[in-house]
Amino acid sequence: MSGHSKWSTIKHKKAAEDAKRGQIFSKLSRAIIVAAREGGGNPETNIALANAIEKAKSYSMPKENIERAIKRGTGEGSAEEFEKITYEGYGANGVAIMVDVMTDNRNRAASDIRRIFSRTGGSLGTTGCVAWMFEKKGNIIVNKDSGVDEDALLETALEAGAEDMNTEDDHYEIITDPESFRGVVEALEKAGVEIASAQVTMLPKTTVKLDKESAKKVLKLVDALEDYEDVQEVYANFDIPDDILAELAEE
């Protein structure tokens, strides 16, 4: 899982600094709008909204943008009718890929997602073909350079309900079940821990280790999907060795 979680961290850092921040904020707003529309505007009673807000904060989305998106979702402002759809398929070496989409045009999105898979060497599959390879989990990243003590971090996380903590080269990865996610985040914040990213995501149960050429193909597909306006999240079960990942991150 090292090569997968590390790439997720690299992508998060790149996205947070990306010149296309407006596009990133647009995607985050969509998630908040839909969550508020479906479950109400109070994050205390709407877990999906609380999670969407937490993710938006991890990308430094301004408070007023978050509040505006909530109001649009609850009908206090104009809100587009976005539909949530999940597509499933495969990349190089049989890597499983799930794509969460929020769109106002189902037919256009389906056509575009299929085209992205095809032109980057992947293949779009049927509903359920890879979903069983993933499980919904809270995922919290804390960078080692934040100066946090590993034992204290583990103790705080476990006491708040976390399932596990993985130690990587430059960060800690805390895993929770979706229901405990908010409590763990709040406990860490209360303890003064600086959180690099926090979101409820789909984590792979098993991973496929890739060589450099296969990694290039898979990451090209993932990047193309993530750049598409209607795509909210891309989940994949690849594992790229650290040395190859470092090379590709620099290219």
Spell out the helices and strands N to C: HHHHEEHEEHEEHEEHEEH
Kindly provide the radius of gyration, computed on alpha-carbon positions and rounded to a whole number of angstroms. Answer: 18 Å
Instruction: Classify the fold: give the CATH topology of the largest domain.
Output: Alpha-Beta Plaits
Largest sheet: 4 strands, antiparallel
Low-confidence stretches: none
What would you give as the CATH superfamily of the largest domain? YebC, transcriptional regulation domain
Query: Treating each run of at least 4 consecutive H or I residues as one helix, how many helices?
Result: 9
Can you give me a brief rundown of this structure?
With 251 residues, the chain is of the alpha+beta class. The chain has helices at residues 2-16, 21-39, 47-58, 63-73, 106-119, 150-159, 181-190, 212-227, 242-250, and strands spanning 83-90, 96-103, 123-124, 134-143, 164-167, 171-176, 197-204, 208-209, 231-236, 238-239. The chain folds into 3 domains: 2-73, Arc Repressor Mutant, subunit A (Orthogonal Bundle), CATH 1.10.10.200; 83-129 and 206-250, Alpha-Beta Plaits; 133-204, YebC, transcriptional regulation domain (Alpha-Beta Plaits, 2-Layer Sandwich), CATH 3.30.70.
